[in-house]
Amino acid sequence: MRSSRKSTISLISAALLSLQAAPLFAQLPEHLRDFPTATRGASGESVAPFFNGWIRNDDDSVTLIFGFANQNREGVTDIPMGPNNRLEPAQYDGGQPTHFPVYQRRGFVGIQERGAFAVVLPAEEAETEVTWTLTSGGQTWTVPGRTTSSAYEMSNGERAQGTLKPAIRFSLDGTESTSVQGIYAAPMTTIVGEPVTLNAYVQDRGNREAYPENEIMLYQVGTEWLLHQGPEGAVPEFSNPVITGRDRAREAGESASGDWTEVTTQATFSDPGDYVIRLRVDNFLAADSKFDNVCCWSNAYVPVTVAP
């Protein structure tokens, strides 16, 4: 008897839950109803923009940091500047990527590329909301970048054990990047099929001597040359595109001297057009520097015009 009564109660409960769940399910947009359990396609999926966080700078300007997630399992996506790839207000448009590789990283970030670019708002416009809109794979996504949430606030200062963002220069006595927004090199030119040498100087930074647990004060940095912007479907070839800090540590030891290290790559372009190449420099060998935490790396950008 008890068993029969329990079964009846269970059936009634299930029926009530289904009545409740059906209207909620129906409220979802049709294209999202199966999203949580759907398998990502090899291609044809959308690219979603992400707002990674904001930094209040010493001069009261604000840096808004953006990244993206290409939801394809294999298909690299290009989205040219314009209605399908835009920043608003329009005066901040133009620094975002047009080339979106597929990533399969370990850890929390997974398919995300964090800190691909940043927008700097002057102090008098520090409360401006900047939106990034991407349309691809039949979907349009818009993400706002703004300073209204302290949960997204980040810092340019020291990490838990003294690590700072590494430094990049295009000449030893030139302007220095120690941030995601980075610096731009003087424009370069080449022709299709003729390799052009891209080079920069990099250096780890930190105040690790202030923390007794640190045994290494300066680490070998990792470097990666990436296509940031370019004609649709055109991907240059880079010699030695990625050298990790671990790779350099195997050759020279984990501890760095503190001198500037020159890094180079030969870039060969198969299609004419205007390109921007991004150099990302990280110090992920340090215990308090991890990609998951949006620290610590810096960017620098090289514009290249390729003639036929």
Protein traits:
308 residues, mainly beta, Immunoglobulin-like, 2 domains, 6-stranded mixed β-sheet, 5-stranded antiparallel β-sheet, 2 helices, 20 strands, 11% helix, globular
Describe this structure in words.
The strands form five sheets. Strands 12, 13, 15, 17, 19 and 20 form a six-stranded mixed β-sheet that branches. Residues 11-25 have low confidence and may be disordered. The protein folds into two domains: 47-153; 158-307, Immunoglobulins (Immunoglobulin-like). It has 308 residues and is mostly beta strands. Helices cover 11% and strands 39% of the residues. It is globular, with a radius of gyration of 23 Å. The protein contains two helices and 20 strands. It has helices spanning 2-27, 245-252, and strands at 47-56, 62-70, 77-78, 85-88, 99-100, 112-121, 130-136, 139-145, 153-154, 163-169, 176-177, 183-184, 188-191, 196-206, 222-229, 237-238, 242-243, 261-268, 273-282, 297-307. The longest helix is centred in the first third of the chain and has 26 residues, at 2-27.
What is the alpha-carbon Rg in Å? 23 Å
**CATH fold label of the largest domain:** Immunoglobulin-like
Secondary-structure class: mainly beta
Query: CATH H-level name of the largest domain... which superfamily?
Result: Immunoglobulins
Task: Provide the low-confidence segments as ranges.
Answer: 11-25
